[in-house]
Amino acid sequence: MTTLLHVAVSPREGRSHSRRAAQLVLDQLAEASADLRIIERDLAATPLPHPDAAFVEASLMPDADRTHAHRAELALSETLIGELEAADSVLISTPVHNYTVPSTLKAWIDLVVRPERTFRRTPTGKVGVLADRSVLVVSASGGNFDGAHAQTDFLMPYLRYVFATVGIQQVEGIRLQNTARGAESAVQALDGFSQELAARMLLMPLVA
Length: 208
Ligand SMILES: Cc1cc2nc3c(=O)[nH]c(=O)nc-3n(C[C@H](O)[C@H](O)[C@H](O)COP(=O)(O)O)c2cc1C
Hints:
- It is a single chain.
- The chain is 40% helix and 21% strand.
- The protein is an alpha/beta fold.
- The protein has one domain (2-207): Rossmann fold, CATH 3.40.50.
- The strands form two sheets. A five-stranded parallel beta sheet has the order 2-1-3-6-7, with helices on both faces. A two-stranded antiparallel ribbon has the order 4-5.
- Helix 1 packs parallel to helix 7 (183-199).
- The chain starts with a strand and ends with a helix.
- Belongs to the azoreductase type 1 family.
- Pfam families: Flavodoxin_2 (PF02525).
- Homodimer.
């Protein structure tokens, strides 16, 4: 059995391009693998809190000093880390918001990337603790990141860096661009997405 964690980010539910593309990925994966288990983490349906003082205190203190109350502060973080640990592969479907990840996805990252839990602090820098696994990032943007007048991409480089921090190196990205440039452009974006998905054989690592 393969377990895949899908982190769905777009707040637009039914009208979201990134969610539509993710569904395409999930349908193709279900065809390719009969015993695929999906853990669905929907950040729009169930928004996550931003780190507050109590969480930060509990997160940074040595485990041996933690009280019951400190552990309760970390319970949601433990649930999210548990979902990631249980997953053989990960699909993240997300909009681009102001050149990078939406704040809802940043909240997930802040709960998952935790010192002495998913990475260790060493004199030579941070060392990831999690086993490597495949991550596919499906991102939708109103404008373009390739070609003429391209925007600077702070989303994929950032996500690669974040996942590497916790030990996950196999991160691939695929974009739906120009979603905000009319209905025809949006259809082209989904077509282009499907073709690139097949050409780069991005599904195989998710069920390998
Ligand atoms: C707050 C906000 C910020 C955005 N920032 C960008 C941006 O920096 N670059 C871009 O190309 N599109 C940007 N967009 C457009 C979205 O990326 C685009 O509508 C995309 O299709 C949203 O994903 P979804 O269809 O899955 O919801 C932004 C949209 C919102 C609401």
